[in-house]
Design a protein that fits this description.
There is one protein chain. The protein is mostly beta strands. The protein is built from three helices and 40 strands. The radius of gyration is 28 Å and the shape is globular.
Length: 791
Amino acid sequence: MEKLRSSCLYFSAGLFLLISMFTSAQSLNKDNKLIIPNTNQAIIIDGVLDDLVWKNALNISLDIVNSPWDNLPSPVKTEAKIIEDGKFIYISFLALDPNPDNIHGFLGDRDTTWGDDIVGIKLDTFNSKQLNYNFFVNPFGVQNDSISNEVNGDENRLWDGNWQSFGKKTSTGYQVEIAIPYNILNFDAKNSEKTWGIEFVRFYPRDERLRISHIQLDKDNDCWLCQVSEITGFEHLSESKNLTVIPSMVAANNQQRDPYDNNSDWAKNNDIDAGIDIRWGVTANTLLNATINPDFSTVESDSGQLSVNNINSLYFDEKRSFFLENSDYFSSNYDLVYTRNIADPDYGAKLTSRTDKYSYGIFVTNDQQTNFIVPGNVSDDIATLNTESHSAAFNYRYNFNKQLTLGLISTLRSADDYHNAVAGIDAKYKFNDSHTVNAQYLYSDTEYPEDLFESFCLGDSCLTPSTQCLFGNCEFTEQVNRTNITDDFSDNAYIIDYQFKTELWDFQASHEKISNLFRADLGFMTKVDYQKNELGFSRLFYGDNDDFWSETLYFATWYNTKNDEGDFLERSFDGGIELFGPKLSLLSVNIVQATKTGLRHDDSVLTLANNTTLFDEQQVKLYAEFKPFNRLFTGIGYDFGDKVDYNNNRLGSFNEVYIEITSNITDHLFIEFDHTYSRLKADHVTNLSNDDVFVANLSNLRISYQFDVESYLKFSLAYIDVEYNPENNPLIDTGDIYKDLSTQLIYSYKLNPQTVFFLGYSDNSFQDDYLRKLSRAEKTFFTKVSYAWSL
């Protein structure tokens, strides 16, 4: 009886889909464009799909798998409907599944369920084939949104729009309702009838992650956005004032103590700040963001990263809403706008606008402190000026046609006795579907404070080098020489990149040069005095139906770098294979052969010739991951081979193991754990000790209980444990141990991205040679409240 009931359900659903296909055929105009209907009836976003208005909606069948399959029929049925009322675009999905128990979908915070079963749309509101919004929802209604930029290939998943969704699992699959307000979209309001690009997509992860669409895609054309269908209508779209005011309050109780003094009391500091954000849609395609006394803190802590034996700065994602909205307007070939450099502003303003032909963005802020990267060609470091500064960025892009795009970009940072200004031009030209050239040229003008170089000095003074400045016994560093510059200085940088890409082949060639005195202090550019030539290719093979591996990817990359004078820096060749198989499995083998320059023997000069040692590294990198069932993911990596010991300027051998496990224990409870074990060995100069240089362990643990799509309780832990061998670190002074433990417990309620409530606690403990155990040095109790008023 149960089997008969199930069969009837599938027969009814199939008949309904057949009727929908006929109905959708009636919703095409003579140019085969979709026509979006308009309604004045109300829709309740509850995932039930019983509103009468859906009978008048445009029906779309998603029945084509265009990745990894090549436009083959879908194994599952999916129906979408779309309609609008002048204020919202409404979309519904009916996603059938023959085995609903295998659905990958659980409760979670927004933008955390991209790997689940999801349905949604890609929306190009200017039909420019260059930028689109992505709105996707999992079976529980958890939202995933982003903005994709076809010009530079970036996808900004940190953008959060204010839209509605609801999902519901059923006995035959799941169904979703979505409402997207026009006031979160940029579009051209001049014409009454509008034509936008649109694609309806379902992701179906089982043995493979199938991408199911309503259109076919030519994968020899790497611009998938250029191939989406068009939808016309929107005549009844009404422009509202689109003004949102978001007052906020942040309160924190910060406590610190001296961990080396057992009798030390906690020093307490209570801090309460009120601020206001304003979001004004000046027109449908122009947005003004302003903020006064903003809370620019990141509520959730960053995951831990190992910095041992690392001579480059660590990169952290931006999480603050003011910088995230329309951040793609400031992207370019180089990372010139890295807003984590802006730490503590009092105000900020940002204006962005887009049409089908051009886009521009500009923002200005101040900062109570000034942080920026001092780059180099061997190492880099962070400079901090204890003075207020002002920052600004501007980007303008013009689309001449579908082949040619030109852009202008400029950034500025300024303070007392300090400034850095960058201006540049970039271009992208598509010869055809497969051949593309990108190029960018930049010019910078900079002034450093006269005493900045002293902050990088390892001794009392670096005004003049000592007679003998040998590695391990030198007060100078590369950054002393990079900052000990009087008066203004200027220089340039450029990059040119060619790419040939089809479904099976990908070839890339690039050349870049970043001159000695070039600086981009608002960005994340760690290299100067640097030239690089790079070649790379990959070849994809599809397996047959009876093959264990569904896809096989071969790849190889070669690059060579040198400084402005042509002196050698680094050469590397790596090649490997990636195998994709059942249970969403991946097996990767990568072999690397590299020759690298060590640190300078005499750091008082920037010369490389006869001032460095070359080291040959050979490494093997292995990685495997799979999802044995829908609630569990596991990945493991193992790297081994040669590695430069930069602290002692010699070649060592290393082993590194990485393990990641994530599990949805229930629909509400999620656990994520990853651990990295890293060990570096080198020959001991006296043979009186073991050959360990260091052993490092890093663990990250996150446990989240999601009450519903709006609220969760999350515990986070990051633990770093580094054990040094002082007897085998002859050129640096190290202790035996360094341990650091950070924890955070936070309750979050998010009605939408702007209306939020946070209540949390965090602390930090550490241990070194002078402490017998981990000792807590900082703890904070905090809360944040903000509410979005739409006027």
